[in-house]
Amino acid sequence: MSAEASHRWPAYRGGLLALLAAALFGVSTPLVQRFGAGLGPFTTAALLYAGAATVGAFSRRPSELEARLLPADWPRLLAMAGFGAVLGPALMAWGLQHTSGTGASLMLTLEAFFTALLARWLYRETMDRRVWLAMVLLLFGGVALVLDQGRAGSAQTMGLVAVLLATAAWGTDNTLSRALAERDPSQVVLGKAAVGTVASTAIALVLAEPLPAATSVVALLLVGGTGYGLSLRFYLLAQRAFGAARTGSVFAFAPFIGAAVAFAFGDRGGSGLLLAGGALMATGVLLHLAESHEHPHAHGRLEHEHAHRHDDGHHDHTHDVMPDREHSHLHVHEPQRHAHPHVPDAHHRHEH
Fold first, then answer.
1. Which residues of the chain have pLDDT under 50?
2. If you average pLDDT over every residue of the chain, what do you get?
3. Residue 40 Cα to chain centre, angstroms
4. How far is it, in rounded angstroms, from Cα 171 to Cα 285?
5. Which of 68, 291, 33, 284 is CA-nearest to residue 162?
């Protein structure tokens, strides 16, 4: 592989990882609707994240290859679990039982909207006019979906509103997870999912939700392992490879995958408004992907730990024996100034 191709490879790798995460999560939405029928929302959430925790437990890597979670990370991880592993899936599970699978899947595109908005507010991530236009299109697409479901009655509308609130919860979770993208993704998945499972189980017991059948338990554990556990692992690796903004943009294809699966399952509900909403959202996603950001910028001195290689243009520290593969340890970046296409990842958090 040439030097130029080597520098371009992380983008390809990040895109592939984000697409894998999107595909797994997208497929999970209509499956949760099918196998979670008749179950309480917190029972469904508990089973999904129990499956995710299992994946996290069995996919952890040695400490010399991945940075460990630190005690200071746990408050953030607990907040991620609250929003992403308790509120998000419970709202999603309830909403899926009260609206169409296709509409709910498309509404999930607004997760990218909330993620971008919160990233701008909390981290001052750069957002040009193309990104703002994309967000407006996503928002209008969501409005079209709500109007479409409103034609089917108030119950359908409330189901879609619940899914909307789930996207806000997951958008908050995504924004919080940015700071943990350099940690071992399996450890992050395990910690978040374990907390979410315990909390959701406790709430389900307090609310006396009905016990699930064995088939539902097995199915939702499998869906949770792939659609929430593996998906989150791939999502975090994609964030590491080419930044939070682009990861979120590619991940926004997940709802369209879910809508296609719901359609294949026989969900033919909706009208021209649903198609219009989907088209607006698809256009918004494509605008996100078309973003390009390059300018001269300065890096200050930075000391941190994460999995890295020495052929990416940002890790020029030395070793007694230079590793030829990805590895993790505490290292220092000396100040430098250069220009290249970049995203607001761990190495590019400068102001604009």
1. 1-10
2. 78
3. 24
4. 15
5. 33
The two structure tokens encoding residue 343: 């995203």
Tell me: the pLDDT tens digits for 272-305?
776 777 777 677 767 756 656 666 766 667 666 6
Q: Are 243 and 291 in contact (CB under 8 A)?
A: no
The whole-model pTM stands at 0.76
Give the amino acid at 214: A
Q: Is the dihedral of CA 160, 258, 85, 249 positive or negative?
A: negative
Residue 140: CB atoms within 10 A of its CB come to 16
DSSP letters for 299-315: E--EEEEEEE-SSSSS-
- 234-283: per-residue pLDDT in tens? 988 887 776 666 677 778 777 777 777 777 777 655 567 767 777 776 77
Segment (H or E) for 119: helix 110-123
Boundaries of every domain in the chain: 3-295, 300-341
Query: How far separated are the first and last CA of the chain, in Å rounded?
Result: 34
- Cβ burial of 272 (10 Å; 0-12, 13-18, 19+) is exposed
Residue 24 and residue 238 in contact, taking contact as beta carbons nearer than 8 Å? no
Q: What phi and psi values does residue 308 have, to the nearest 5 degrees?
A: -155, 165
Burial (CB count <10 Å: 0-12, 13-18, 19+), residue 291: middle
Q: Which residues are bridge partners to 296 per DSSP?
A: 339
A 10 A CB-CB count for 295 gives 11
